[in-house]
Design goal:
This protein is mainly alpha-helical. The protein has 7 helices and 2 strands; from the N terminus they run H-H-H-H-H-H-H-E-E. It has a two-stranded antiparallel sheet. Strand 1 and strand 2 form a beta hairpin.
């Protein structure tokens, strides 16, 4: 009997550790000692995404953190996230968010001083 909960927990831990280098189901399946197809079926059934989608989710989260919380330039962020070229990173980010990394950074900077106060927008100067 396969313990899907344990597999998902172990997979989450592995993706957190390796998402910058590897996003394939085969890589994670090998580490978990199960077939890649089975791993994708488990993740899709329980999380609604296949393994590469889960890894991209971690990558996108890290990209958003770097764009909003650091002053690193695009080239630095590109290489921190293990993309070969800035254009590859921009293509990935736009595909996932609908925004370029620069647009996201500018939007985040504009919203940095804005909070919700009782359901109303409040500008913090």
């Amino acid at each position: 009997m396969i313990n899907e909960e344990k597999i998902l927990k172990d997979l989450d831990r592995l993706i957190q550790r390796h998402f910058l280098e590897e996003r394939s189901a085969a890589f994670y399946a090998k580490l978990l000692n199960i077939p890649a197809g089975l791993l994708n079926n488990i993740t899709e059934e329980n999380l609604g995404k296949r393994v590469p989608g889960l890894a991209r989710q971690y990558l996108l989260k890290e990209a958003k953190i770097l764009l909003s919380c650091t002053e690193n330039n695009m080239r630095q962020i590109t290489f921190q996230l293990n993309f070969a070229y800035p254009a590859c990173f921009t293509h990935f980010f736009r595909r996932e968010t609908g925004l370029t990394p620069t647009m996201f950074r500018k939007l985040h900077a504009k919203l940095d001083g804005v909070t919700l106060d009782g359901g109303n927008l409040k500008v913090n100067l």
